[in-house]
Specification:
- By secondary structure, this protein is an alpha+beta fold.
- It has 2 domains: 12-115, SH3 type barrels, CATH 2.30.30.110; 123-199.
- 45% of the residues lie in helices and 21% in strands.
- It is built from 3 helices and 6 strands.
- It has a 6-stranded antiparallel β-sheet with strand order 4-5-3-2-1-6.
- The longest helix is centred in the C-terminal third of the chain and has 70 residues, at 129-198.
Length: 199
């Protein structure tokens, strides 16, 4: 998968290519669910994942069971180990987790990094609706700006390719004219030499 791939979404399960691990770290070469937010998934070259394991695990608040469906086998999400991986290591998309499993996944990840409901609000109070809507509007503006910059980048890329093609064509034409000039000089010299011999 390309680093700039924007199709990766929260809750999707991918097969992750192997990488070296130390100690009790979960190594790749196994399925993992994407747990980074979709803004990150869209623009960043890396994503956060939680690996699935088919090994029997103890009942912990950071473990979530995943039922078999399609290419996803019955397994356990190990949410106490959240990993950052390059998108280049994501290969086959195996499917997406059901809503109820995603809900349990979010809760388990929050427990793993010690986030409570009070941590997400000011003094334990809910975020005012006006502030929430302002944040959403700001995010939408940033998303639009990213789209615009992406379009400019693609345009510059096309223009660069066109300039490269033009440069190759001009260089080839210059070489042809240069060779024609050299050949013309040689022919004139040769013809001039014959004229002197006849005199």
């Amino acid at each position: 998968m390309q680093e700039n791939d924007s199709k990766v979404k929260y809750g999707e399960v991918y097969y992750v290519l192997p990488a070296k691990a130390i100690g009790s770290e979960q190594h790749a070469g196994r399925p993992a669910v994407v747990v980074s937010n979709n803004a990150n998934n869209r623009f960043a070259p890396t994503v956060e994942v939680v690996y699935l394991t088919r090994q029997e695990k103890g009942d912990q608040p950071t473990h979530v069971e995943v039922e078999s469906q399609g290419s996803i086998h019955f397994s356990t999400l190990i949410c106490e180990q959240i990993n950052t991986v390059s998108k280049l290591r994501l290969t086959d998309r195996l499917g997406v987790l059901p809503k109820e499993t995603v809900k349990a996944l979010k809760k388990a990840c929050a427990i793993s990094i010690n986030i409570t409901a009070a941590d997400l609000t000011d003094d334990g109070k809910s975020i005012p609706q006006e502030e929430y809507e302002a944040l959403l509007q700001r995010y939408a503006c940033l998303d639009k700006e990213f789209h615009h910059l992406g379009g400019i980048l693609e345009t510059l890329k096309v223009q660069n390719e066109q300039l490269s093609d033009d440069n190759i064509r001009i260089t080839a034409e210059r070489n042809v004219f240069k060779q024609l000039y050299i050949d013309a000089l040689k022919n004139n010299k040769f013809e001039g030499g014959n004229s002197n011999d006849q005199v």
